[in-house]
């Protein structure tokens, strides 16, 4: 199914010693999954016509102001495919803005969440009150309509980005595949997951490679992800008791841990009970959502509000577009944990 083009020797998965040495130099990692409030999805963020450095700069300034030092940012192969050089220039511009605010970046290559269909050009408008109504998968439908030419494109994409930025100190980590197996793909995502790890190890960037475990029942995928990740990443949207159990279960691998998704207020995952737990265990803390915008992630996954009114309790997100916080108490807590005065 998969091509062998440009096959190169693969480096080994980092040793536990190397992974822990790398982690010891980072300080406590804390931040958000970031997309500017003016973008509904990854394509709107990265396409030339809608790339918005002004908003990115302003909103990353909000992050710096509360002591955050890392952002997790989703890429999309189609934005690269239609304009490889321009795409890389925009990635570099984003990194320059983030670096100005002393923020490192976790980049995500592939993603099995939300809409399997996508197209270049103008993106849809948000559906009022619907969580992530315009977010798109990558490669999405290509997983079911796979062909050798598509895989060649995906391989060129991953290797081009990694080769360009493999020594870039502004990048913290490469998250090679977000929630593989979601959207009921299950183990159908394993061949591409295996390939992207292989492509990454062939390029051998300075930064670690990882893919976060997220669903306990996806045993085959979990086993592969944990075996092939240089540092362990995971997602958890439960309360502090269940989250603590997950941390304890992953400690046995002896590798650094970063929680790359948490914080869903109405599900019991909040800054007040989870962020201190993560800091206490020296686990990186990357919550979902930052500035309320076109992704509509103030609304819960399964509780749409078609009239578009503001929910009493935001599901995700920290700030409004003008920089005022959803909760002053949360901001005080975050700043106390990050040491920001």
Number of strands: 8
CATH class call = Alpha Beta
Q: At CATH's second level, what is the architecture?
A: Alpha-Beta Barrel
Class from helix and strand fractions: alpha/beta
Averaged pLDDT? 96
Low-confidence stretches: 1-5
Query: What's the quaternary structure here?
Result: single chain
Distance between the termini: 54 Å
Largest sheet: 8 strands, parallel
Quick one: overall form? globular
Question: What level of helicity do the residues show?
Answer: 25-40%
What is the strand content?
A: 5-15%
Integer-rounded radius of gyration: 19 Å
Can you count the helices? 11
Query: Can you write the helix and strand succession as a string?
Result: HEHHEHHEHEHEHEHEHEH
Which homologous superfamily in CATH is the superfamily?
Glycosidases
Strand order of the largest sheet: 5-4-3-2-1-8-7-6
Number of domains: 1
Q: CATH topology, which one?
A: TIM Barrel
Spell out the key features of this protein.
single chain; 341 residues; alpha/beta; TIM Barrel; 11 helices; 8 strands; 37% helix; disordered N terminus; xylan degradation; carbohydrate metabolism
What would you note in describing this structure?
This protein has helices at 16-24, 42-46, 53-65, 77-82, 84-100, 148-165, 190-203, 219-228, 240-251, 271-280, 328-338; strands spanning 30-33, 70-74, 104-111, 171-178, 209-210, 232-235, 257-261, 284-288. The protein is of the alpha/beta class and 341 residues long. It has a single domain (23-338), classed as Glycosidases (TIM Barrel). The protein has an eight-stranded parallel β-sheet with strand order 5-4-3-2-1-8-7-6. Helix 9 links the parallel strand 6 (232-235) and strand 7. The radius of gyration is 19 Å and the shape is globular. The chain starts with 15 loop residues before the first helix and ends with a helix.
